[in-house]
Design a protein that fits this description.
This protein is α/β, with parallel strands linked by helices and 441 residues long. Helix content is 45%, strand content 17%. The strands form two sheets. The protein has a six-stranded mixed sheet. The structure holds guanosine-5'-triphosphate and magnesium ion.
Length: 441
């Protein structure tokens, strides 16, 4: 991937639309704009209507064009935009005209944002926020991504990094003093600052993964004996026929996931195989996966057949510590009997109890995901890993007496935090970050 190439891409979605936006970034953006319009450059950052011509001189379309000379552009390079009519033939003709210029090629997924990062227009958390904004499906995801784009995380992490860098500078200076003239107060102050940042990081880390859950979705596993109606429930929640329903016990084997938007939160509901002992190897594997999913889920719906109250479900795990909603299905049948006082009653045949169950799910999601504080939340495992590393270094730093070791641990903490925003190792991290832009492309 060459950085001095000029790149272009369809910035708007594929498919028929009123308007399509083609964006060009790089040194040849200027000549592209000149040549395709056959006119001088338009005023800076001002939309004007121009005819767009193919290299043959034939008119392609009349379009709104914009000119953003670098460095005051999204990527920091010269950028041109063509807002053309959204038909496929128009887009293809403009793309072909652009690709015909020497040094101009189609951009790779995320390449515009990548250049913005490399040119210092955005830091990594903001680049991640753009990926999140483009894939946001719920209000909570949109708001969280927007806060991150506005620099909520960058500001926090940069402050920690600069405080630790200051402490490090003091310790490094102290190392140059001889033992008898060592300024003890300075060392004590460096310890105090390291401890204060460690405390803040710890608080930031104990957030019940709220930000990650908003972004990735709150996970719900529907488990229960065969034939309880698990697949029927998942279909009812999804509002479409995603899983096979049949009176044959043991129908579902694979885990089937549906994504829902409950009260503005992304919720991923998983249908699983009915729990029973089975000599069929495939069904047994399905049961193993069902139990594993119950263990990893944020909430478990234990779905039972109310006409068949056999022994309690053995989820053989730590599910006592997580929310388990027990729901008795088939309330429409005559021999139905409901159980515990907190249990829900449901009939997927008549729809009775479905609204109550959805309300309970929405409340559970809100309880775990709602962010009542104004503090920015961690949104990715990548951030968490780096902060855990920084914490470990700061904890060590708190207990060492040799100044060289103290300095080394502070340096490791500064570096770990710097990796989150891309203040250090940015080139190495870009590939990891930009995988997000490729998903679904
Ligand atoms: N009467 C009645 N039948 C239901 C209800 N819910 C589901 N059923 C029926 O029960 C049978 C099993 O439903 P499924 O949704 O396939 O059950 P499951 O729990 O996914 O079963 P497995 O995948 O085999 O574990 C089907 O014949 C459904 O039509 C209900 O509320 N009332
Ligand atoms: Mg099923």
């Amino acid at each position: 991937m060459r950085r001095d190439d000029t790149i272009f891409a369809l910035a708007s979605g594929a498919g028929r639309a009123g308007v399509a936006v083609l964006r060009v970034s790089g040194p040849a953006a200027r000549i592209c704009l000149n040549s395709l319009t056959g006119r001088p450059l338009p005023p800076v950052r001002r939309a004007v209507v121009r005819a767009i011509f193919a290299l043959t001189g034939e008119i392609i379309d009349r379009a709104l064009i914009l000119w953003f000379p670098g460095p005051d552009s999204f990527t920091g390079e010269d950028v041109a935009e063509f807002h053309v009519h959204g038909g496929r033939a128009v887009i293809e003709a403009v793309a072909a005209a652009l690709a015909a210029f020497p040094g101009v090629r189609l951009a790779e997924p995320g390449e515009f944002t990548r250049r913005a990062v490399l040119n210092g227009k955005l830091d990594l958390t903001q680049a991640e926020a753009i990926a999140d904004l483009t894939s946001a499906e719920t209000e909570a995801q949109r708001l969280q991504a927007l806060r991150q784009y506005d620099g909520a995380l960058s500001t926090l992490y940069d402050r920690w990094r600069s405080e630790l860098s200051k402490a490090l500078a003091w310790v490094e200076a102290a190392i140059d003093f001889s033992d008898d003239e060592l300024p003890q107060e300075v060392i004590a102050e460096a310890h105090r600052m390291g401890g204060a940042v460690a405390e803040e990081i710890e608080k930031h880390l104990t957030d019940a993964r709220r930000g990650e859950l908003v972004r990735d979705g709150f996970t719900v596993a529907v488990v229960g004996p065969p034939n309880a109606g698990k697949s029927s429930l998942v279909n009812a929640l999804a509002g479409r026929d995603v899983a096979i329903v049949s009176e044959t016990a043991g129908t579902t084997r694979d885990i089937i996931e549906v994504r829902l938007n409950l009260g503005g939160y992304a919720v991923v509901v998983a249908d699983t195989a009915g729990l029973r002992q089975s000599s069929d190897a495939i069904e047994a594997e399905g049961v193993r996966r069902a139990l594993a999913r119950a263990q990893s889920a944020d909430l478990v719906i234990a779905l039972r057949d109310g006409t068949n109250a056999d022994k309690p479900l053995a989820l053989n795990d730590n599910s006592d510590s997580k929310t388990v909603l027990t729901v008795w299905n088939k309330a429409d049948l005559p021999d139905f009997g409901a159980r515990g006082p907190d249990d829900l009653v449901l009939s997927l045949k008549t729809g009775e109890g479905l609204d109550t169950l959805i309300a309970a799910l929405t409340e559970a999601a809100r309880d775990q995901l709602e962010d009542l504080s104004e503090a920015p939340v961690l949104t990715r495992a990548r951030h968490r890993e780096a902060l855990v590393e920084a914490m470990a270094a700061l904890e060590r730093a708190g207990s060492v007496s040799a100044l060289e070791l103290f300095a080394e641990d502070l340096r490791l903490a500064v570096r770990a935090i710097g990796r989150i925003t891309g203040r250090v190792d940015v080139e190495d991290l870009l590939d990891v970050i930009f995988r997000d832009f490729c998903i679904g492309k």
